[in-house]
Write a structure and sequence with these properties.
The chain has 327 residues and is α/β, with parallel strands linked by helices. The chain has 10 helices and 10 strands. Bound molecules: zinc ion. Zinc ion (ZN) binds next to loops.
Length: 327
């Protein structure tokens, strides 16, 4: 049996591109993270992404990639390898990213929703290792989700299943990027925590340390809440209540062994994890609540890259299985 080769992982985020070589043990090599210059349009950003891929591959020193794994926010068509119109990348309509990557690197490529890739990464190498039923929520530019059911990745019909960010937590509430009103993402994404903080500061004249900042970001809100800022605390508590409610519903629906929370907003650590755990423990149906472990991502900021790598590693195994040597 041939030794499994390393693969190249490409993660296309709304604010940053992350690229690395990933070896079969799940470790990243030659990690490069650079900003997504969205305003330059898909062609320029993809050229930049592929250039990062070549640089990473050269710098990593682990050999040439056997496949390329790509993770990106949806909507996308995983089956045909096309980005049909990602919410975080306006104007990227019907981009055949898998064919483009395969051509650029001369090896097979595979595409998945970023949170779907992330749950695979966490299941294979992180906090959900060994869990038959695992859910993953990412709280970053948007809010995404992925699930492992009976030990296997659940993709949905075209790879867009597990959009946990678009479960409704406040009917008739804030408008979401998807067009509905009151989705979790409209409250709990890093972007929307910051937007809501700015709205609150404009309509509420209470003193707040957030007023001194030129640009309020989600991490400022959590830090100010931890430091006892009343206005920030209210906003943070409201956000955690909505997130806890959404995770409770997911626990009731799936009865998972583990729910993993990842993405930039979870850098706030216990300040996020503890209230969500507490709400799930108190509110979920008793057998499901007792069984579900709610925890933070084990792969940290590298989760999407490792997830994309895991996809590509699986692709190399499948290719190998189809080859004459294994028949
Ligand atoms: Zn939505």
């Amino acid at each position: 049996m041939a030794t499994q080769q390393p693969v190249l992982a490409l993660d296309i985020g709304g604010t940053k591109l992350a690229v690395a070589m990933v070896t079969p043990d799940g470790r990243t090599h030659g990690l490069i993270v650079e900003p997504t210059d969205k305003h330059r349009g898909p062609d320029a950003v993809i050229a930049h992404l592929f250039d990062m891929g070549h640089r990473s591959s050269a710098a990593a020193g682990v050999g040439a990639p056997a496949a390329v794994g790509i993770s990106c926010g949806g909507p996308l068509d995983a089956e045909t390898g096309v980005l049909t119109g990602p919410l975080h990348l306006p104007g990227w309509i019907d981009v055949p990213i898998v064919a483009m990557a395969s051509e650029a690197f001369g090896v097979p490529a595979v595409l998945e929703n970023d949170a779907t890739a992330a749950v695979l990464g966490e299941h294979r190498f992180g906090a959900a290792r060994g869990a038959d039923i695992a859910l993953y929520l990412t709280l970053s530019t948007g809010v995404g989700g992925g699930s492992i059911i009976d030990g296997r990745l659940h993709r949905g019909a075209a790879g867009n299943g597990g959009e946990f960010g678009h479960v409704m937590v406040r009917p008739g509430g804030r408008r979401c990027e998807c067009g509905r009103h009151g989705c979790l993402e409209a409250y709990a994404s890093g972007t929307n925590i910051a937007v809501r903080a700015n709205e609150l500061l404009a309509e509420d004249d209470r003193p707040s340390s957030l007023r001194d900042l030129p640009l309020v970001r989600a991490e400022h809100v959590s830090a100010a809440a931890a430091a006892g800022d009343t206005l920030a605390r209210e906003l943070w508590d409201d956000t955690m209540a909505l997130l806890g409610q959404a995770v409770t519903d997911l626990v009731n629906v799936f009865e998972p062994h583990v729910v993993v929370l990842g993405g930039g907003v979870t850098r706030s650590g216990a300040l996020l994890l503890e209230p969500v755990r507490d709400i799930v423990r108190r509110s979920a149906m008793p057998p499901a609540a007792a069984r579900a472990t709610v925890t933070l991502a084990g792969l940290g900021d590298e989760v999407c890259v490792v997830g994309a790598g895991a996809l590509a590693l699986d692709l190399t195994v499948n290719l190998d299985l189809k080859g004459p040597a294994r028949v």
